[in-house]
Amino acid sequence: MASPLQDAISTIVAVFNSYSAREGDKYKLNKAELATLFREQLPEYMEKSECSKTVEQIMNDLDLDKDGEVDFKEFMNLTATLTCFCNEFFVDFMKYLECEGECEGGDGEGEGKGQEQKKCPI
Length: 122
What we know:
mainly alpha, 6 helices, EF_Hand_1_Ca_BS, calcium-dependent protein binding
């Protein structure tokens, strides 16, 4: 039985390959495949932006060898970055919740910290 991390890794590989195999080089994502992957797999990340401009910018940032396509290693740069942002948000949110508990306790010491943490977008 695979661990949750093994399942997550397998899922990332499978998702990449299912989109990269649709057109052209089956080991790379072209711009259309990348846009479809974002729209279908990361809709919440894309909904507040102009999708075509966002995909164009991300494609330019990811395509390190400037061949007009994104290979798996280049795609993993995005995946790792998104994962780090999610972790940072989670850690900040947990600190915010801890601080809220201190502030509600009425000891007065946590109030400044609580105000500072409220800047974190939730």
